[in-house]
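Reminder to self: tokens first, then the designed residues, so the page reads top to bottom the way the pipeline ran.
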């Protein structure tokens, strides 16, 4: 695993903005805007899947609002769709992973590279 490149689409960004507005987060408009700006700095935003592609894949998932998410991951040829959604994690043809599992994969990869570098210097 090399560098991590984070991708999202406008549909997912709109969903994230909506979630940030929930009362349980108690965020001010300024805080929500700051988090949204930060998100834009951290990820590459790609186009949403075309409406006709969404309509032709309605059988992909039970939760129809997640279809643009799944098609976005598939359309970018992403290594992983990082999600906590159980249906997306089990969707056929969409490699997905939980956030905690991806972080563990990144950490273990860094440790094995560090170990390999240390070993090669010893030899």
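Designed residues (123 positions):
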């Amino acid at each position: 695993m090399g560098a991590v490149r984070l991708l999202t689409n406008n549909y997912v960004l709109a969903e994230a903005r909506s979630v940030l507005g929930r009362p349980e987060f108690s965020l001010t408009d300024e805080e929500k805007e700051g988090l949204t700006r930060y998100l834009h700095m951290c990820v590459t935003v790609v186009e949403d899947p075309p409406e006709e592609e969404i309509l032709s894949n309605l059988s992909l998932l039970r939760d129809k609002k997640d279809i643009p998410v799944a098609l976005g991951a598939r359309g970018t040829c992403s290594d992983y769709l990082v999600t906590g959604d159980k249906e997306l994690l089990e969707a056929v043809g969409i490699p997905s992973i939980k956030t905690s599992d991806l972080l563990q994969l990144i950490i273990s990869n860094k440790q094995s590279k560090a170990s390999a570098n240390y070993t090669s210097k010893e030899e």
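The two ends are 25 Å apart (CA to CA).
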